[in-house]
Amino acid sequence: MVRRDAILFFLIALAYRALFLLETHSEPLFSILAIDAQFYHDLASRFAAGQYGTEPLWYAPLYPVLLMLLFRIGGTDPQVVVALQFVLGAGTAAVGVLLGSRVSRTVGRITGGVLALSPVFVFYENQLLYASLAVFFTALFLLALLRAMDAATTPVRARALGAGVAFGLLLLLRTNAL
């Protein structure tokens, strides 16, 4: 039942994000890269061209490196990144259902609904900003950590490793997460 709820809220979140794209695709406000988003785009474009520079990297390195990889594969169109961030945002809703369901099925559904339908999350996922990935990795870390802490979970080491990997990825996105 809980997995079915997670799939349902994943699909609801995807549909909501698709509706957002349909409604905003011709709006200039939603297609302009501003400040941090433009910086990440420029930095990842430089990295993709093999120009790494010598100056220190002031931002957590994972996001521009992920963008660089995506730019090398599919070009520098921000919409490809936005689509992937929307899928991760829908994944966050599914993970939220799993987290909330540890309390009760109702809490899981409420958590999934909030994460699926929050306009704030959708707005950030529509930008080239690491916030949507940070929310996803935080939820994934919490789920993996809680599962590793369950006495009935086997093997605990593998689940603890999963929590560590999720936390490590979160730290590469948001260095002050610690």
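That was protein one. Protein two is written in the same sequence-then-structure order:
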Amino acid sequence: GRGYWLPFLLFLPAFALVAQNSVLKKRHAQRGTGPEVNAIASQLKARMRPGECIFVFNGEPILYHLTKSCIPTAWSFTDHLSNKGDATGTGVDALAETRRIMAHNPRFVVTTAERLPKANPRTWPFMEAELRRHYRLIYRVRIGKCCTRVIYERRGGAGRLQGAASAH
């Protein structure tokens, strides 16, 4: 009985630790680490006025917290609006919600420089056109092997997206 279980019980935690470290290393290589995300937050905080809101179209939702921004939508996990796989799973029209947010002219938009393979074919072209027409690139940083995160600032300054009252 017990003699067979003891080696297994000793091996299991060691295996779990090795597996966890392997997954974390792979994730960091692909998606970057805290310093890269903190650099984005620092760039935003240095430019934001009190009460201003950002829109993270494609990026790390933690940026809302790190910048003390309001969240302009109930679908704050960026894949809900920017990923084709989540386009119908939320019960909301992703393009209509993206248009609604952008109609408030957020001063800052965080996204990815490259259109990723999982991109929502309706929201990405809309956002690319909006950014070209009304925004200027102010910052870029490589996030692991994944992509390049970028911050755009609205030409002419702040829009109407301010405070929690603007959130969906």
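The first helix runs from residue 2 to 31. Keep this in mind for the problem set.
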